[in-house]
Amino acid sequence: MDNPSPFACKPKDWDYANSARYDLEVSVSNEQRLIEVINSHGGDITTISCILAGLISQLRAAQGPEGIEAARVFALEVAKTMSSTGPSSPDTARISAVFNQHK
After folding, report:
1. Model's pTM, two decimal places?
2. Could you read off the pLDDT of 72-102 as tens digits, one per residue?
3. Are the C-beta atoms of residues 36 and 64 closer than 8 Å to each other?
4. CA distances (Å), origin 54, targets 14, 58, 59, 60, 86
5. Considering all CA atoms of the chain, what is the largest pairwise distance in Å, rounded to the nearest integer?
6. What is the DSSP string of 16-65?
7. In Å, what is the CA distance from 83 to each residue of 4, 19, 38, 44, 70?
8. Is 92 helix (H, G, I), strand (E, B) or coil?
C-alpha cells in the first residue's frame, strides 16, 4: 500500500524548477521593493535635514547661540516623551550634536 508521508507538503509531480524560479522572482521583487522603501525614507530624512539646517541657521541669525541652546534643550525634552524602546528611538547625542555644531 502506497501511503504518502504526513510530512509531504508537495505532490510527487511538483515542478521544482518552476517553483524555484517563482521563489527567486518573489525574492527579487521583495528585495527591490525594500530598496525602494529604504531609498524613499532616505530621501525624506535628507529633505528634513535640509529644512532643519535652514531653520537652525535662521534661529542663530535671529537669536544667537542662546536661541540655539534653548532649541536644543526643548528638542531633548521632546525626545524624552517619545518611546525609548523599539527599533527607532531618538538619538539624544545626535540631537545635541546637530544644535551644538550651529552655535
Report:
1. 0.62
2. 999 999 999 987 777 788 999 999 999 999 9
3. no
4. 60, 6, 9, 10, 30
5. 89
6. HHHHHHHHHHHHHHHHHHHHHHHHHHHHHHHHHHHHHHHHHHHHHHHHHH
7. 52, 43, 22, 21, 22
8. helix
pLDDT exceeds cutoff 60 at 24: no
Residue 74 is inside which H or E element, if any?
Answer: helix 16-81
DSSP letter, residue 72: H
Give the pLDDT band of residue 8 (cuts 50, 70, 90). very low
pLDDT for 47-78, tens place per residue?
999 999 999 999 999 999 999 999 999 999 99
The CA distance from 67 to 71, in Å, is 6
Do you know the residue count of the chain? Answer: 103
